[in-house]
Amino acid sequence: MLIVRKRRLRETPGEPDTIGEIAMKKPAKDPIREERIENEAIVDAYGPEEKAMSWYYYLEGKLTFPFQARCAMARITSPLRKGETVEAVGLAPEDACAEDMLVRIKWQGRKMAVPLSQLVAIDPDESIAEAIGDWHYWVSQGYLF
């Protein structure tokens, strides 16, 4: 499950500032984005597993790899620091995305998967920008699988 938590862990610069997951400011409802997510990303998905796989296939269809991305926020479960640049090379395998959408990256000579919610594409095409924006919106609204 994706959970947006807002409780402070510590005030140390460079450290993640929340326990566990991410803290994003909750944006105002966007009816156009809500409708697109409902009709394209999670259409006919009723349980958590179906929603996770629906998101996976939605992103798979809209993201073209590779693309450059910047870490928008540190997370306790990721080695990336805010501002670092990575090359996104693909989605993680389906089974790895059952609780969060993960993207495979090249970083410091290694390959690994990090949460898509942590990344912002650099100079994306329209499809990539829309798909990542939809995922960020979903997460920031506090929606769960």
Average predicted local confidence, pLDDT: 86
* Sheet of most strands: 5 strands, antiparallel
Q: What structural class should be given to the helix and strand makeup? A: alpha+beta
Cα separation of the termini:
6 Å
Strand content range: 15-25%
The CATH level-2 architecture is identified as Roll
Q: Percentage of helical residues?
A: 25-40%
- Per DSSP, the total helix count is 3
SSE arrangement, N to C: HHEEEEEH
Looking at this protein, list some descriptive labels.
145 residues; alpha+beta; SH3 type barrels; 5-stranded antiparallel β-sheet; 5 strands; disordered N terminus
Please provide a brief summary of the model.
The chain is an alpha+beta fold. It has helices at residues 31-41, 48-62, 126-140; strands spanning 67-71, 85-91, 102-107, 110-115, 119-121.
Secondary structure: elements and pairs:
Elements: H1 31-41, H2 48-62, E1 67-71, E2 85-91, E3 102-107, E4 110-115, E5 119-121, H3 126-140
Antiparallel strand pairs: 1-2, 1-5, 2-3, 3-4
Helix pairs in contact: 2-3
Task: Tell me what the structure shows.
- There is one protein chain.
- The chain has one domain (31-140): Calcium binding protein CcbP, beta-barrel domain (SH3 type barrels).
- It has a five-stranded antiparallel beta sheet with strand order 4-3-2-1-5.
- It is 28% helix and 19% strand.
- The model is unreliable at 1-22 (pLDDT under 50).
- By secondary structure, the chain is an alpha+beta fold.
- α2 packs antiparallel against α3.
